[in-house]
Structures are given as structure tokens and as C-alpha cells.
Amino acid sequence: MNNIIKNVLLGLLGLQACIVVLEILFCLFSLLMNKKGNVFLTEYILENEKQNVIMEVILRQMIRCCFLLLRIFSGVFMIIFVDSIDLIEDDINPSISFGEERIYLISPNTTVRKPYLQCFLRTLSLEILSFLDSEENVLLFLAYFYFYSTYTDFLLNPLAIPLMLILPYIYRKTNIKLYMKYRLLKPLVFINYSLALFYGLKAALFLNKKLEYHNLQQHLHILFEFFDKNGFIRTFCTKENSKCLGIEILTISKIAYVHLIGDIEALPDNELLGLLYKQIGLNHKIIEKLLLWLIFIFLEILIEISALKMVKELIVKRYSRIGRFFIVYLLLQISIIPYLTCVKNIFLHNFEYKSDEYAYKMTNVYDLKTVYCKQFFLNEDWMSISLPFNLFYDSKPSINRKLDQIIQSSIK
User: Fold this and answer.
1) Are 382 and 68 in contact (CB under 8 A)?
2) What is the pLDDT of residues 301-329, one digit of tens each?
3) pTM of the model as a whole
4) 68: in domain
5) Which terminus in the chain has less CB density within 10 A, N or C?
6) Which structural domain range is residue 233 located in?
């Protein structure tokens, strides 16, 4: 691998590591100084005796940061592993297929002094390369390694662990002819297969509770009055016995599909109305959000295509075109794409702030802040303390920033 490219990739990962370490330090400071965050959130915690709960939230955030650090260090190992590929020689025998070519290690230059960790990772990479023995196996190893390192966050969910462990076995048992015929495409097929299956299983876990349709006229008359006033035909759906608390609304023409999640009936009418206007504010931005997603998908594809054309031979010289393309794709995913996601999150956060602004203009600010605090604790949301971490890893602003923004905007 070209040294300049390697240093740039390691630098990008290093910046991500600094952001995560900074978040851990802020969490430690919050625990030691007993600082809960926003003034209104602190008052809510004291009034409702949620001190132990907020400590658990901060500890959970620290555990999340540890898993993210593990993901970043896995990316560092992947870069060193790819850099080690050019330290092997191919003993090509024209009479056998490419998948059976043997590789041998070049003797390392022991006179050059390097940091212990770098030497250890380099030696480990070379040992793995000698064991894998072929380009096909190396690419498949990178695909598996990328999958498990990317989804370390899901290890926090006990239900996801067995799914992650059996996924390669399911993949192997459901092989298709394309996979068997074009062996070097196996890694790319695995990545797309795993994404589709894993998110499908995640959605199944989310929707495992029974949905019940019934008349909510007695408890939620305020919602009916609102939609009747605006001439909407209403369709209501509730998710019973859910920890989450929220309202989802989708309006198509004059039909309003309202999804009530959790113990929504326990909210007073004023808080329920604030939650309703918040969701309506988000619906006003739904077209803009869709366009934003499409623009950033296009930018991601454009960046990947440009990088594949420009630097594929600077990353790995000895592999086939498909192999070089796949390796460049993985390196982009772990190093550059997170920064593109950060830019996208800035716009998504702004949409949230705009919907909050719409909500507090239509209802009471205090009620809106109160229901946000209830949502935060009941939904067991993440609480990012530092702004860089919030922008990098959360598509929604943290509870502290939402409350700060509401207070500042209401003063204006």
C-alpha cells in the first residue's frame, strides 16, 4: 500500500478514536462531578428520583464507546493487514486455477526498528495471510472481519449475538450459483447478503409485539379532534406493552395513519398534543429528508467510484481487479464514509430542531420539554455528551441539546 494513503487512512481512524475517547472522558467527568447535563433535565431527574437511572445511562454510553473503540482498532488492523498483502510473493503455476495459487512470506527485515504494536500486528497479518493461502480466502476473511467489527454495537443486545454467530452458517447453506461460479465475488455477495438478512432480523425483533387496532375515542379525543378539524380520515394503530413512547404519523392525501407506541394513554392531553405537533413538524420535512438521503447515497457512490478508479492499484498491486475493488470499498467504509455520515447527521439534527421549533410554537414549551424527558427515560435512548460524538454516531440530537435548543429558541 502507498505510504501516503496508509497514513491518511490511519489518521482518519485516529481522529475517530480521539472523538470516542473524548466522549469517555466527558462521561467520567459527569459521573465524578455528579453532573446530569441540561438544567431542565437535572430538575426533572431530581423531581422524579431518576438519579440511578441517569447514572446507568452514562455507564451504558461508556460501554457503547468501548465497542466503538474496538471497531476503530479493528479498522487499524484491517489497514495493516491490507498493507501486508504486498509483502507476499505468488508462486503462480499456470496449470492450476487462481484460487489454488500458493503464497510465501518474504523474510522480514529485522534490522528496522518499529513500534511493538505495529510489529505485532504486522506479524499477525503475515501469519494469517500465509494460513489463508489464496486471494479468494483473503477476501472472504476481510468480508467476515468487516462484518463482525462493524456490528460490534449489536453485542449489547443479547438477542443479536446468536444471530451474528449463525449468520455465516446460514450464508453457506444458502449459496447460489452466482456465488459458486464467481468465487472472487463471494465477499461482496456476503456483505450485501448479511446487511439484508441482519436488518431483516432486526426489523423482525422490533415488530415482534402484536399490533392491535381499536377505538381510542375515550382516551385520545384530542387527536381525533385535531384530525377532524383538518378534514383527515383517521387510521389508528397502537403497540401494546412497549417500552417506547412516541407517535408516528404518515399523511397521504387526506388519510392520516397514526401509530401510537407505548403507554401513550398515560400522558396528559397537553403533553400528548406537544408530541403530536412534534411529529407533524417532522412530517413537514419528510420530503427534504428523503432528498437528503438520496443526495448522500449519490455522493457515497460517487466517492466510491472515484476512489476505485484512482487508487485501486496504490492499495494492492498483486490482486485481481475484483479483489482490489473490494479492498478499496472496505477501506472507504471504515475511514471516509463515517465523515460523510457526520455531514448528513448535521442536516438531520437541523430537521429535528426545526420540528421542535414548530412544536413549541403550537403548544406549551414546558409540556414539550417534560414529554421529551419522559420519552428519553422510557425509550432508553442514548445520551451523547460531547457534540462531535453526537454528530458522528447519532442521527438525532441528544436530549441535552434538544432541551438547550428549545430553551434558547423560546427566549428569542
Assistant:
1) no
2) 888 778 777 766 667 777 777 777 788 88
3) 0.79
4) no
5) C
6) 210-266
